[in-house]
Amino acid sequence: MTDHVTRLLSQDELRTANTLFRGTLHVAPATDEEWARSTESYQPDRTLGVFDTELIGTARSFDSDLTVPGGARVPLSAVTGVGVRADRTRRGVLTELMRTQLEGFADRGVVAANLYASEGLIYGRFGYGVATLWRRCVVDRRRAVVRAGAPSGGEVELLDLETAKTRLPEIHDGLDDDRPGAMRRSEYWWPGLYRQLNRAEAPVKTVLHHGADGIDGYVVYHTSRPNPADPAVLRVEEFHARTPDAYARMWRFLLSVDLIDTIEVSEMALDDPLELLFTDPRAVKVTGVEDETWLRLVDVPAALAARERGDAEVVLEVADPILPRNSGRYLVSKDAVTRTDAPAQLSMGVDVLAMIYLGTWRPSALASVGRIDVADSGVAERADLLFGTRVAAWCGTFF
Ligand SMILES: CC(C)(COP(=O)(O)OP(=O)(O)OC[C@H]1O[C@@H](n2cnc3c(N)ncnc32)[C@H](O)[C@@H]1OP(=O)(O)O)[C@@H](O)C(=O)NCCC(=O)NCCS
């Protein structure tokens, strides 16, 4: 791109960027009141802008940590607020934003970046790959009966949203989620959740679960019934359980809420055992499985070294045209990750490495559709063992 300037925006340019971004999503500019609340989501010095005669594109991020297989946490940049003015699209503005942003992350020692994509064709070319999945489901409240023998310990406590707001960040941190794909919720994340919950048509409720060692789970929900003839729906916005007792007890509570026909959960981990909790597994209807977060490995050797690896060894070749220092061959084994000149046994783009990194996709599956080149079929099996995980990756922190 020529005749363009790409740079970090100052605090007094953020509202223009917010208006531009909202416009790309076909949303009206924020009112003064909305903007006063939105500013809380902008981490200073993390919003980029591209200018020709004026601002035509923007992208921002906030700092976090990503939990990787094995439970270690690595520095993460959470990317959001990406938009290019409709009359300036398809001429490389996003490409320039992504390149500048990724180089900035690398310079700051960030190991990975993630985002929720509006469309599936946008981010692969910048090295992002689908790394976590989520599913939506609807529970028929009258059909769902918790099986005898399901855990039943602990007590629940109902809070209104205003009370919950002062406690949720600490409670969420205390749950200490070690699931691959989980991320720390920064002070710049919570205001977005509260803005979304404030739009709910009915009061938002929070239920805490008190287990043997203190609070070990919580659920946030509200209800809706657009017309008297429609079913009454309880929508679960957040469900986090650290223990089996918390999981089963909070579901028992949700099923006990009066005047409700169905319970909708839109952001569930793929291996969430909900069907197994009920006498009739068909009380749960899965209504969708979709890509959740897209991951970008910014520092490939650091990322590979940080995650737990299975008992196997492969020479893996990575291609990363945007951050070329990641490109090269790595000997990856259970005990170590080192650069090597040995011939490659598996070759892939950095976007595909992101897809296997958290364990969501098996290397052999990606090889079978031509997205990984393998020297022989035994290599793919060894790579499956090396990158396999016990728990499905899930983020559960929409931004
Ligand atoms: C998505 C968006 C940011 C792309 O910006 P852009 O400046 O047009 O992107 P670029 O010109 O840098 O595109 C780079 C490449 O990606 C392709 N591409 C970009 N957006 C695409 C899309 N939505 N679908 C398919 N391909 C897309 C371009 O065709 C181009 O391909 P090429 O290199 O083969 O020519 C812009 O269209 C937009 O603001 N959309 C609405 C808001 C939105 O969805 N934001 C993302 C939120 S997660």
From TrEMBL:
This is Predicted acetyltransferase. Acetyl-CoA binds at residues 82-84, 90-95, 118-119. Residues 300-395 form the Enhanced intracellular survival protein domain. GO terms for molecular function: aminoglycoside N-acetyltransferase activity. GO terms for biological process: aminoglycoside antibiotic catabolic process. The active site is at residues 123, 399. Pfam families: Acetyltransf_17 (PF17668), Acetyltransf_9 (PF13527), SCP2_2 (PF13530). NCBIfam families: PRK01346.1-4. It comes from Amycolatopsis marina. Gene3D superfamilies: 3.40.630.30, SCP2 sterol-binding domain. The keyword Acyltransferase applies. Homohexamer; trimer of dimers. The keyword Transport does not apply. Belongs to the acetyltransferase Eis family. The lineage of its organism: Bacteria, Bacillati, Actinomycetota, Actinomycetes, Pseudonocardiales. Signal peptide: none annotated.
